[in-house]
Write a structure and sequence with these properties.
Strand content: 5-15%
Number of domains: 2
Oligomer: single chain
Number of strands: 7
CATH superfamily of the largest domain: Response regulator
Number of helices: 10
Helix content: 40-55%
Distance between the termini: 46 Å
Structural class: alpha/beta
Largest sheet: 5 strands, parallel
Length: 223
């Protein structure tokens, strides 16, 4: 039996997962549940698959070999507003979660869920719900409660970033290459990676997307 949407057509899924055994396990569970499933193992493959045709649902990991899933979520939400997006990731830390949801993910499921749960969760997603693992929901509640408190004082710079580092962060947020950032700021191309390493260390992040998200949260840059 094929799982169908309101139009009677089979629900198509693009599954983006670089770990082959995990991908096979998820694909098998979804196909058995009646979904049509395409797979991609990298950000590049996912972009090509999306360009070839819009899926009803995008299921993506966050940590990919050639980039971060948050980038894919942001692009998909902008280009394909009717595609439902859900994260399936081992990353359950608060910043990964909030970053993914901020740019457009509707659901967030941790990889410790059983395959049958994943198939059911996709059905809920298509039905208009926002499936989120219980531990993830607690993060969101805590963040929402803290963000509802009135702001006090000027923008935070708890990471003690220098003005130069904030300028480089802005360049990262705008998607500029290292060479473009160096040219714009009058720096040597070789010095930019060192600055970015310091930014990551101070913000306690590991990717461009996480650095930008944290900088926006602290009011250091505006997009």
């Amino acid at each position: 039996m094929t799982d169908q949407g309101e139009t009677g057509e089979a629900i198509t899924i693009l599954l983006v997962e670089d770990d082959a055994p995990t991908c096979w396990r998820l694909q098998d569970a979804l196909v058995k549940a009646g979904y049509e499933v395409r797979t991609a193992g990298t950000l590049g493959e996912a972009r090509s698959a999306l360009a070839a045709g819009a899926p009803r649902v995008l299921l993506t990991d966050l940590r990919l070999p050639d980039g971060h899933g948050v980038e894919l979520i942001r692009e998909t939400r902008r280009r394909l507003p009717d595609t439902e997006i859900m994260v399936i990731s081992a990353l359950g830390d608060e910043e990964s979660v909030i970053s993914a949801i901020t740019v457009g993910a509707t659901g967030y499921l941790l990889k410790d869920a059983f395959p049958t749960d994943i198939a059911t969760t996709v059905r809920d997603l298509v039905a208009g719900h926002s499936p989120i693992s219980a531990s993830i929901a607690r993060f969101i509640v805590r963040r929402t409660q803290s963000s509802s408190e009135p702001p006090s004082g000027p923008a935070l710079n708890t990471a003690k970033l220098t003005p130069r580092e904030i300028d480089i962060l802005w360049g990262i947020a705008k998607g500029f290459s290292y060479a473009e950032i160096a040219s714009h700021l009058g720096l040597s191309r070789q010095t930019v990676p060192g600055h970015i390493k310091n930014i990551y260390r101070k913000l306690e992040v590991h990717t461009r997307s996480e650095a930008v998200f944290e900088a926006v949260q602290q009011g250091l840059i505006k997009l």
